[in-house]
Amino acid sequence: MKDTHCVRFLQQIMPTLQFQWRGFRKVRKQVCKRIDRRIKELGLSGIEAYGEYLKNHRSEWERLDGMCRITISHFYRDMGVFAHLGEAVLPELAERAWARGEEHVTIWSAGCASGEESYTLSLIWQMDLARRFRGMELEIVATDSDPAMLSRAEKACYLYSSLKALPASWIEAAFRIENGSYCLEENYKKAVTFLRQDIRHEMPEKLFDMILCRNLVFTYFDDALQRKLLEKIEKKVRPGGYLLIGTHESLPKGTRGI
Question: Is the per-residue pLDDT at 255 higher than 90?
C-alpha cells in the first residue's frame, strides 16, 4: 500500500474516530502496516475496498480504532522529566502525604502501554527515595485499553533497547536475564497495579497526587475530546497535585490545566 493512499485514508476516517491527523503524521507507518495486514487478512483488493468494507461492517470500526493505537515506549523516556520527578516532585508529594497523615503517594499512569513509564517511577522511588521516606510507599495505577500491552506489562520482560537509558547500576540491581530478555524483579513490580481501561470511557475511581497522561490524549485525540477528557482528568487530581503531559504536547487552547 502506497504511503499517499494510506495518508488520504487516515485523514478521511480520523474525524469519525475523534482522532487528529496532526498526532499521527510521524507515526503513521505503524498504523499503515497494521491496516495493510488487515486488508490482506480480509482478502480485499486495497485501501479503497477496505473503505467500502467499513461502510458495510460497522463493527470493523472498533477493529480500526485498535489499529490506531500507538505503542512507542521505553524506560526513562524523556530523561530530564524523570530526573525532575525524582529530585523535586516525588519528594514534595511524599512530604505532603506525611503532612496529611498518609503513607502512600498515589500516581495514575494513563495509556501505560507495556509498563515502562510506571516501572520507571517505581525504580526511581526504590533506588533514590525509599530510604529517605521510610514507611511511605508509592502506589501506581497503570491503565491501558490494549490487553496485549497489559499482558506484556504484567510480565515485565523487555529487550535491552527498551531500558538502555537507565543507569547501569539500576539495570544490574533490578533486572534478571531470562532467554535474552531483561525481566524486572518482583520487588520493583509490586507498586504497580494494571487495569484495562480506555480513558475515553473509563477512569480509575480514586484521587491521585500525580497523573501522567503523556503522548496520548493531547497528541492523538481531537480538540473536542481533549477538552472533555481534561475536565474529567482534573477531577481525579488531588488539590495541589500534578498533571504531567508530554514534552511536545499542549493543553487545548483556552484551558488552564491544573
Answer: no
Confidence of residue 246 (pLDDT cuts 50, 70, 90): very high
**Domains (range + CATH), the chain:** 3-67 (no CATH), 79-244 (3.40.50.150)
First-to-last C-alpha distance (Å) of the chain: 43
* Span 70-91, average pLDDT: 94
pLDDT exceeds cutoff 70 at 34: yes
List Cα–Cα distances, 9 to 88, 186, 240, in angstroms.
45, 44, 43
* DSSP output for 17-60: HTB-GGGGTTTHHHHHHHHHHHHHHHT-SSHHHHHHHHHH-TTH
The mean of the pLDDT values for the chain is 95
Rg, the chain, Cα only: 20
CA 13 to chain centre: 23
d(Cα 47, Cα 8) in Å, to the nearest integer? 10
Cell of 169: 547500576
* pLDDT for the residue numbered 2: 87
Amino acid at 170: W
The mean pLDDT of 216-238, rounded to a whole number, is 97
